[in-house]
């Protein structure tokens, strides 16, 4: 496919706002709207007014003889430039503010989960060997022995390279102290403190099944391989939040595998719905599940519930918490 030439011209903030008004987006406070465009940016805000845009009707494709096929092809409606009646600039800003608070609350939970899991992994592996992360024999064969055809190294080898970079870049006093006093390698309960969520989750995914299961069982999940997909999905969620990307109605590219509802009761609404599994509400439920083990007295679940109940009034545009994958009766089970 040949890329199209980018030909959209630069526009002043005044011109940007005028364009939105001509397309039907109501602006009740022009100076305030201009301030938001200058502070947040047209492109970032466009992700929040995109759901307000009108859509073309569904098309039915005909076959070569002009007949309607027995099973018509599905054609997604196209977003038009015009906005739905009743859409306002303030609606978009309110949705942006809601999403910002949603990301900050999510990061609050993920920080606690990340720290607790570092301890779980380093404590479990450290009991086997204080430098366990260096020994391929202590990991699953797919992780430690299988070569990647493209890179020519194992996943473990690649993980060690990333880990070495984290140690090398670290300016933390405890890293300097341990290097100076004991040299390298660092004991796993020291080294784990430089891991980010991705480094941690990839190491967990490479662990042997007995160690994986021992950790996941602590969180009420019997299968450690499924639990590994939870951590991978939470790492994706963390990256979305850390990079200030839109979250509330995002399609989550990295989705977790779920245990049965007989094992974890709250997963029941998600089992038969691809939409619910593809949105962030499921990952918020996973974070809540883990946090109840990490810190049973945390007020985070109540704070998150209160925030979700404060979703902007956008019913006139057909928007609600269903867009982020919340089941209709989510509040009763949260």
Can you give a write-up of this model?
- The protein has 334 residues and is an all-alpha fold.
- The protein has 15 helices and 2 strands.
- α1 (13-22) crosses α2 and α10 packs across α11.
- The longest helix is centred in the first third of the chain and has 40 residues, at 89-128.
- Mean pLDDT is 93; it is low at 58-66.
Helix count from the secondary structure assignment: 15
Number of strands: 2
Silhouette: globular
Sequence stretches where pLDDT stays below 50 over 5 or more residues: 58-66
Kindly estimate the percentage of residues that lie in beta strands according to DSSP: under 5%
Brief summary:
The protein has helices spanning 13-22, 30-39, 42-49, 89-128, 141-144, 155-169, 173-182, 188-191, 197-206, 209-218, 224-242, 274-277, 280-294, 300-309, 330-333; strands at residues 53-55, 79-83. It is mostly helical and 334 residues long.
Task: Map the helices and strands.
Elements: H1 13-22, H2 30-39, H3 42-49, E1 53-55, E2 79-83, H4 89-128, H5 141-144, H6 155-169, H7 173-182, H8 188-191, H9 197-206, H10 209-218, H11 224-242, H12 274-277, H13 280-294, H14 300-309, H15 330-333
Sum up the structure in keywords.
mainly alpha, 334 residues
């Amino acid at each position: 496919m040949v890329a199209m030439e980018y030909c959209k011209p630069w526009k002043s903030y005044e011109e940007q706002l005028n364009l939105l008004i001509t397309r039907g987006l109501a602006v009740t406070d022009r100076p305030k709207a201009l301030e938001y465009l200058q502070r947040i940016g047209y492109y970032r805000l466009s992700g929040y007014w995109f759901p307000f845009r009108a859509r073309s009707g569904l098309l039915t494709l005909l076959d070569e003889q002009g007949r309607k096929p027995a099973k018509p092809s599905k054609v997604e409606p196209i977003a038009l430039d015009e906005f739905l009646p009743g859409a306002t600039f303030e609606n978009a800003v309110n949705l942006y503010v809601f999403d910002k608070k949603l990301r900050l609350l999510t990061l609050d939970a993920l920080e606690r989960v990340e720290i607790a899991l570092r301890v779980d992994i380093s404590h479990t592996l450290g009991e086997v060997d204080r430098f366990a992360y260096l020994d391929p024999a202590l990991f699953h064969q797919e992780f430690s022995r299988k070569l990647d055809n493209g890179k020519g190294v194992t996943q473990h080898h690649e993980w060690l390279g990333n880990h070495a970079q984290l140690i090398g870049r670290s300016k933390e006093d405890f890293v300097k102290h341990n290097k100076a006093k004991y040299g390298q390698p660092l004991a796993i309960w020291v080294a784990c403190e430089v891991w980010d969520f991705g480094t941690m989750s990839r190491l967990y995914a490479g662990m042997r099944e007995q160690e994986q299961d021992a950790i996941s069982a602590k969180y009420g999940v019997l299968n450690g391989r499924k639990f590994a997909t939870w951590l991978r999905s939470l790492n994706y969620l963390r990256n979305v939040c850390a990079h200030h990307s839109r979250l509330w109605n995002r399609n989550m590219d990295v989705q977790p595998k779920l245990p049965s509802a007989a094992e974890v009761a709250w997963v029941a609404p998600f089992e038969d719905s691809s939409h619910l599994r593809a949105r962030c509400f499921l990952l918020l439920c996973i974070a809540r599940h883990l946090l109840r083990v990490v810190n049973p007295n945390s007020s985070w679940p109540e704070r998150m519930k209160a925030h979700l109940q404060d979703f902007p009034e956008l019913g006139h545009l057909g928007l609600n918490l269903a867009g982020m994958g919340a089941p209709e009766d989510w509040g009763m089970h949260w």
